[in-house]
Amino acid sequence: MGARMLDDDIYIGSFLDLFNVRFAPTPFSGTAEFFGGIEEMTELQKQFEIFRAKRPFSEGAALLGLGGLYNARAKNRWRDLLENLPDNGDQKISDALAANFRKEPPLPCYMMAHDSRPKGENVVKIYEGDRPLFYLEQTYLTISLPMAPRRKHPAKKAKKKK
Amino acid sequence: MSDGADLAAVRAGITEYYTGKVKKFGATPLGVDWTCVATQQMRFVQLLRLCDFASPFSLNDLGCGYGALLSYLDWRHADCAVDYLGVDLSQAMLTRARRLWRDRSNVSFAHGHASPRLADYSIASGIFNVQLDQPRDLWERFVVATLDQLHGSSRRGFSVNFMRAPPDGAPDRQGVYSTVPQRWADYCAAQFAAATEVIEGYGLREFTLIVRPSLGT
Description:
The structure holds two protein chains of two kinds.
Chain A: H1 2-5, H2 12-22, H3 37-48, H4 57-63, H5 72-83, H6 89-101, E1 109-115, E2 125-130, E3 140-147
Parallel strand pairs in A: 1-3
Antiparallel strand pairs in A: 2-3
Helix pairs in contact in A: 4-5
Chain B: H1 3-25, H2 37-47, E1 57-62, H3 68-76, E2 82-88, H4 91-100, E3 107-111, E4 121-124, H5 136-152, E5 158-164, E6 178-179, H6 181-192, E7 194-199, E8 206-213
């Protein structure tokens, strides 16, 4: 994945954070006055069906502004990364979110990354009822994106002088 | 300062704020200070509950920004002819709006703080939120003046939205005006002898106020 983000791989964490805040457990949940987090997302999903069949997650992420505010290059690379997730991962995330929003109540969602280099790991992993954050007693729908460090280019061989 | 000069200073601050936003972010939701397309359009869904789309109508969009409402109308109400006028304080915003919608019929834009025409309906999205460093009482005079104008330029009613005040004891966000629905629903009902409707619970920390002429008036 580093091959797609290149020098912007330092922003991957902030993109994950953007998702994790927008899909977080709702503060003051259950009060009429306060929404936000997964409850806001639930209302947006009801109204616009942002996540659905034949609409990959990357498109929904763009509608929700999950590509950040300031860095257009990083945002475009992040979208490229999502669009090229292996094994139709982009659509699989959308399908998992859509299924989650059909539940009552939907789970908050958490996005993270795992090392894609070991055999069989280069896939999007989705865990329902997971507890990815030990410091929160909260069950999530967890989505883990396969990532690997950027490969260093082999040093170019010096040309022989004639 | 006179009331007129006070309100002119408020509007100058708003103009500067939004001009800065659109110069930085362009004709995007961020350029009009919304987080994303989805939440921007969710507000349009609520505000347009005012309108009867069964037949053509005229619509004033106060604080129109770059005319994002037109995209939403094209998407969800393409079968209804809407004679649209967007009004905004920021010339920079209007420049982008005119560029974006230059080929579109039944669309015009005007510079200023009030609509120059009487329309069937008026809406205003997010124009009461960014209080900046204005004192609350002055900001509420700005709200009153704007509601009065919206009422005066709308035959069949208008709709606006406000940030919802935090629960008791929770601090308000710095520079943001928030309130409770009753405050402005009561004002509109009494001042305009109007029927008011408050819409809440659509996922955002705000409410939409719809104001229609009373059936008896």
